[in-house]
Amino acid sequence: MSDTTAHEEPELIQLLTPEGELTGHPDYPLEISADEVRALYRDLVLVRRVDSEAVSLQRQGELGLWASLLGQEAAQIGSARALTDRDMAFPSYREHGVAWCRGIEPKELLGMFRGVTNGGWDPYEHGLHLYTIVIGSQALHATGYAMGVQRDGAVGEDGSAVITYFGDGATSQGDTNEAFNFAAVNNAPVVFFCQNNQWAISEPLDRQSRAPIYRRAAGYGFPGMRVDGNDVLACLAVTRAALANAREGNGPTLVEAYTYRMGAHTTNDDPSRYRASAELDDWKAKDPILRLRRYLENHGLADDTFFTSVDEEADRIGEQVRTECRALPDPEPLEIFDEVYAEPNVHIDKQRSEFAEYLASFEGAGAEGGR
Ligand SMILES: Cc1ncc(C[n+]2csc(CCOP(=O)(O)OP(=O)(O)O)c2C)c(N)n1
Ligand SMILES: [Mg+2]
Asked: Where is the Dehydrogenase E1 component domain (predicted)?
């Protein structure tokens, strides 16, 4: 018995080769000006800098944890730059590039990882839901939200679409598969954007799926495609098409962005214990920033002055991230009770007053006692 689903070579949608050559793709034509390409390059470089500063801040004890996006910049910037202000995104916990594109200040992102906020931003103001740690749950939230958009009649060419981000590991979760099915049967305007970074902590891709992830969409009855996740132009073109499809009332799409987590899972992890360094070297050759830089240089679309100005801006942002992180105020201890429920709740009120009493018992024992 032959099993073509598992063994046929998958097609990878690519517009820009790792050498920086623009090949384009017949199904995903992309009209983009030189200014827009330079803006994408700037996004990629600045987001990588915010990320590397955050890793250093964790190492210096300023953050409790950080989940690095290193290597996934193009998947995030390309897809998020395809969104409009009317769209809503539901991220996981590594989507710092998406947050950047949705206008979240780096310090707002750092707050949660420093343990000083319960979330960090107003989801409606930015069109970005809060970070979600419960793997795959955001796919259901996004599907429900998309069904709400549908019921509000906020669809059509100028309407809203929804996108949700999750990883390869999340495709093994029931929540994600339920979301696929629910979105399909309800024709919900949602794009499932899977960043397949080849690893779910220490579990490699072949422990998650025998068939390529994007092919699962066929089983639920909607289109799926694999895009080169290190090619910012391909990610932009494919996500734009998927969002347009959702807006036009054609339901969900699964986009598998084939990429690589170049760093550790989080700052708590040591990948040298479970993966070979040769694998990382292979992916370094496909670096998303390098290939866009090569394209800009090869076509004379950017000169040294441009690259230097972006690097200088990155230095300024690095400095800003370090300063603002250290200046983030500690919350009042009792604030933790304020955002548990939207409505007053007797159980929470009881816990609040018990905790207030406990804190008061430290009075006179020094300011640190209550903290
Ligand atoms: C429901 C649930 N199960 C397990 C975990 C623990 N956990 C945290 S991250 C992770 C791996 C996720 O891998 P993937 O979906 O590929 O995302 P990536 O971290 O690679 O971006 C797991 C199992 C969790 N947070 N939530
Ligand atoms: Mg992963």
From this structure: 44-317
Ligand 1 in reach of 200 Cβ (< 6 A)? yes
Residue 202 CA, ligand 2 centroid: distance in Å: 9
The Å distance, Cα 44 to ligand 2 centre, comes to 20
Counting ligand 1 atoms within 8 A of each CB, the residue from 135, 194, 266 with the most, and so the one to mutate, is 135
Separation of alpha carbons 63 and 326, rounded Å: 9
- Which residues are in the CB-under-5-Å shell of ion ligand 2? 167-169, 197, 200
Structure tokens at 81: 């730059």
pLDDT tens-digit readout, 173-202: 999 999 999 999 999 999 999 999 999 999
- Rounded CA gap, 359 and 340, in Å? 20
C-beta 229 within 6 A of ligand 1: no
Q: For 131-135, 204-208, 240-244, 359-363, which range has the lowest pLDDT when averaged over its residues?
A: 359-363
CATH of 9-327, one of 3.40.50.1820, 3.40.50.970, 1.25.40.20, 3.90.1150.10: 3.40.50.970
CA 327/CA 306 separation, integer angstroms: 32
Give residue limits of the domains in the chain.
Answer: 9-327, 333-370
End-to-end CA distance of the chain: 65
pTM above 0.85, yes or no: yes
Ligand 1 atom at minimal distance to the Cα of residue 261: 20
The string of pLDDT tens digits covering residues 6-42 is: 557 789 999 999 999 999 999 999 999 999 999 999 9
Lookup: tokens for 63: 């953050």
CA of 65 to the centre of ligand 2 (A): 17
Atom of ligand 1 nearest to the CA of 175: 1
CA-nearest residue, atom 7 of ligand 1: 135
Q: b/e map of 225-247 (b: 16 or more CB within 10 Å)?
A: bbbbbbbbbbbbbbbbbbbebbb
Q: Report the distance separating Cα 141 and Cα 123, nearest Å.
A: 13
Q: 135: Cβ below 6 Å to ligand 1?
A: yes
